[in-house]
Amino acid sequence: MGRDTVEGYRSKKKIPLVIVLDNIRSLNNIGSVFRTSDAFRVERLALCGITATPPSVEIHKTALGAEDSVAWSYHASTVEAVRELQREGYHVCALELVKGSVSLEKFDVDRERKYAVVAGHEVDGVSQEVVDLCDSCIEIPQEGTKHSLNVAVSTALAIWHFYLGLR
User: d(Cα 17, Cα 131) in Å, to the nearest integer?
Assistant: First the structure.
């Protein structure tokens, strides 16, 4: 299929996007985010709080090796990870339905900027303290009876939106 090796992938230019996982409890969701990040050349993942880190058999089940190709770091505090990204010049977006959030399709991605997207806990979402620190909040419009999507699915949709705007 002509796929890259891990070394070949690591040497490719990545889109200026960091995905921050804020206390994600499901190792399958974490693995899925690794795999999606690999597919769209995300710069790196910031795994925060209770979010598990590789190596992990459960993460590997859905990541299928992407945990080896995608750069990642661990941060005990999501707040500190967000502050660090902001100091590095990233525009940090919480992926959360809150007052004033912008619908994803209306969020204009500036090719001259670096972005980070914070995805939150499967039940509680992005913590309020982190939402308050973020530069903006984005939401995924939904027309069904539910008010949320699986965190791996919503993160994948956000990654796709930023990939289209930054590649």
Answer: 18
Q: What is the tens place of the pLDDT at every residue in 109-124?
A: 999 999 999 999 999 9
Count Cβ atoms below 10 Å from residue 14 Cβ, excluding itself.
17
CATH, residue 28: 3.40.1280.10
Tally the domains of the chain: 1
Using CA atoms in the order 147, 41, 133, 130, what is the torsion angle rounded to 10 degrees?
50
Quote the pTM value.
0.97
Evaluate whether residue 1 is within a structural domain.
Answer: no
